[in-house]
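In the current project phase, we have settled on a layout for protein records. One protein thus recorded is set out beneath this paragraph:
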Amino acid sequence: MTSVPISVPGGAERCLVMGVVNVTPDSFSDGGKWFDPEAAVRHGFDLVREGADIVDVGGESTRPGAARVSQEEELARVVPVIRELAAGGVVVSVDTMRAEVAQAAVEAGARLVNDVSGGLADPEMPRVVAATGVAYVVMHWRGHSHDMDSRAIYTDVVTEVREELSKRVDLVLAEGVTEEQIVLDPGLGFAKNAEHNWALLAGIPRLAELGFPLLIGASRKRFLGRLLADPDGTPRPFSRCDDATLAVTALAAQAGAWCVRVHEVRPNADAVRVAAAWKRAGAGT
């Protein structure tokens, strides 16, 4: 495996935890709770105190069916928040598909670009990332939120996602991104149904064979709510899926994930430490 693109104190032997700060009025997970910049900054610092290694700041909702915001609006939402958090010593990631937003975020102090499109939404993104030298999450993606559900067609989802990610890696490398910068994300919920998501989670070891760190983002996603549906079939609300997220975190960490992206940090920070202790004990037997 290539060297990890971001190292944090105490995180060398365990899965890292990325806490989410949605600076949006329409996030599926928190309903705009952190849309105010001051509230977003406070929340980011709170996540670090709860155990987040990285804080992921996003200004554009990528929930299914979401419409895009303008670049100017996205910049206005994320840059002030990133600047304040980075000035306070937080390791910040910017969740964006736009190269100009990524550039501004890095200038404000971001150390990782989390691009859910893997460079497909903005062809300039890999070149910007290459020039800045920051870590780069390349996620598996087949299209924007408004039509991604129609693209959830696979014969063998693990094999196809692995192959498509491998092609994206080759393309971003050709644009100057180095192997040491790259993190891969299978894109749970993005052009995937529940069956696809579970197969990808079970397939983490196969995805890891690509040789890059893996970021897993299962927190509060629809497939968990559907798994935990009421007897009448009503899915469990997103906000009541945190215990299920915790189980996924522990299993993903045990399977070799480099980082998990979550909304509730404290219990997930505990879970990755439990998984690390379990693996250490197993290695010693």
Q: What stands out?
A: Strands lie at 16-22, 54-58, 92-95, 112-115, 135-139, 182-185, 215-216, 259-262. The chain is about 40% helix and 10% strand. The chain has a mean pLDDT of 91. The first strand starts at residue 16 and ends at 22.
